[in-house]
Amino acid sequence: MQQVNLGIIGGGTVGSGVYEALQHNGSLLASRIGAKVVVHRIAVRDPKKKRAAQIPRSLLTTDWREVVFDPQVQLVAELIGGTTTAREVILAALKSGKPVVTANKALLSAHGEELFAAARKYGANLHYEASVCGGIPIIKSLREGFVGNRINALYGIVNGTCNFILSRMKLQGVDFAAAVAEAQRMGYAETPPDLDVDGHDAAHKIGILASLAHGFWINPKKIYTEGIRHVTPLDMKLAGQLGYTIKLLGIIKKPAHGSCVQVTVYPALVPNGHVMASVNDAYNAVLVRGDVVGDTLFYGQGAGKDATASAVLSDVADAALDLKFANKHRVPPFVPHECDSSVAPIAGVFSEYFVRLDVLDKPGVLARITSVFARNNIGISHVLQPRGREGEIIPLVLMLHRAPNGAVTRALKQIADQPLLKGKPVMFRVENFQ
Ligand SMILES: NC(=O)c1ccc[n+]([C@@H]2O[C@H](COP(=O)([O-])OP(=O)(O)OC[C@H]3O[C@@H](n4cnc5c(N)ncnc54)[C@H](OP(=O)(O)O)[C@@H]3O)[C@@H](O)[C@H]2O)c1
Fold it and tell me: In the CATH scheme, what architecture does the domain 347-430 have?
């Protein structure tokens, strides 16, 4: 049986997981693809460090170049993370004509265009299944399973840390800080947790999915990104009373007319009856709506040693098959198309809204607020006002009909300028998946 020598850069959580999974399932993989994948060398920073997998010291080096430029290594897995050395590693491997597997969403988000251009130039594929949603095979499904579909919409709960935090806030009624502390204790959140809770990690992943779905590499600066720091137990409770749950959603939507695509990340109210509302803890879920297939749903572990290793192995298998058949019959992992498209600015994106205004409970307040929305041509579909005593500050909740983000932002600014408001207006978008 043909042997494929794999060089791994990084022996941390994911690198150790890949090594271990190959020890357990290497023969099964070989019998399925007709090629035996052998780990030839692994680069780490500190060879003395204790690792999750029992990696023989003889395989370790501290110099990634010894792995990438080893003539015996045919395939390279970049599993160190970051955007500097990792970029160098991938470019060096591709230049040497070696296919690369990466789990690095931050790098692909920042330099994807350059890296895929290098892959095309040097005729070596760059595989990235593990970069989005860990164990869920969403990249392969979009690229291959839905190759005959236009992707009209994609909704993703793609950051397990945020989903864990929001689940705890909803189910246990704890506040954001307590939920973050618990996520850190459980190993779901980094210290500091900014990359996750400010929505950047989700934006990296949604950008990759949008690029794949719409064929032009999305500039991460164009992705409107809001994190979950401002979600409060009160908003969770009020949303619950209206039949909704708050989730951090990545959304990719192509309207029927026009060439702009909505690519956004923000916390949104989702109806409790919708399956996305019941995705809890650190789980991920992605709903893909294709014009031929209709709605499909993917659910699973979005991160962690084993789930991510599973995705890396699927790419390793693809790359090994490429090597076995001399790269002749397979579609590259990213094919640019629809290059006349662009990302819609947030002001022009339409949505429905939940707005909470802390106001003095006195006659005329509601009328003044509704008149501002009317002036901006925004309809109100529902009002929730907890019973209060006159002169007390109460949370007034308004559900708004579909309107452009720009109009709602303008109306909220006009309301915020009025003395009747105590505190900043709170606004979440509502996603009904229609
Ligand atoms: N962890 C997850 O659940 C997960 C899920 C999906 C995607 N990813 C992605 O997978 C990648 C790896 O994540 P991870 O969690 O495995 O990270 P990690 O646990 O921090 O491991 C990083 C590894 O890279 C090694 N390393 C760092 N710089 C190096 C250098 N210059 N030369 C050689 N080795 C170097 C480290 O060596 P030492 O061990 O000696 O320090 C370590 O083994 C990242 O891009 C991440 O975004 C991770």
Answer: 2-Layer Sandwich (3.30)
